Amino acid sequence: MQIYWTQINQIIQEAPEVRTYLLDCPEGFTWEEGSHTHFALEGFNAGDKPNRSLIRHMSISTLPHENSIGITTRIREQCSEFKTILRNLEVGNEVAIFKTHSNVPLKREDKNVYLLSSGVGLATFRPLVLDYFNRADNVNQIHSLNIDSSKNFLFTNIFKSIPDKKFTSQFVDNRQAYYEEMKNLATDKDGLFYVVGSDEFLVQNIEVLREEGIKPEQIILDKHEQQLPEFLSV
């Protein structure tokens, strides 16, 4: 397993509790849209065993052509040891990334794609949308639906409806509006439904989609293949 140590080159305050950490791209490090990585802080591998409290599984919110690895995360006032350390890091500090993989690349199957997310989960979808804008081949259209009760919606410069590009974006701040709209989207019985959020959020979304007649193979989750049956089994 290769561990890439790299520096923070910029910190962007996306919203009151959300930051994006932009990292230098180490030589030889590659990724694709929908990728996640293990993001670790200094000292995580100092002992005999890795200190798991200093490691988090994070989505990469950028594409390679942006020349930085973006890690977007919510840091609340009351937070874990990991987030407390992260909050105090500055440009120039070193972090590590390793075990990078994509469970949710953009499927190009001549279908409509629906991106369903909660809060900062939208960071996983940012690269998919940019990839679609760069090359729309074999994707009919994309519709993004995001729920964020904070009302501090993310990436609104990218997640805005562009009819010419067959891209629509919706933000809602309550569950009732979210699930009503999701049921409307699920009238497309041939669409592909990507879901990103907490496990509880995934379970609730899958339940609604299945009730609306969407098949498990149409639901794409940011989970390893061996984890999918526990979410998608009937």
From TrEMBL:
Q: Which domain of life is it from?
A: Bacteria
Q: What InterPro entries would the database entry show?
A: FNR_nucleotide-bd (IPR039261), Riboflavin_synthase-like_b-brl (IPR017938)
Its protein name is: Dihydropteridine reductase
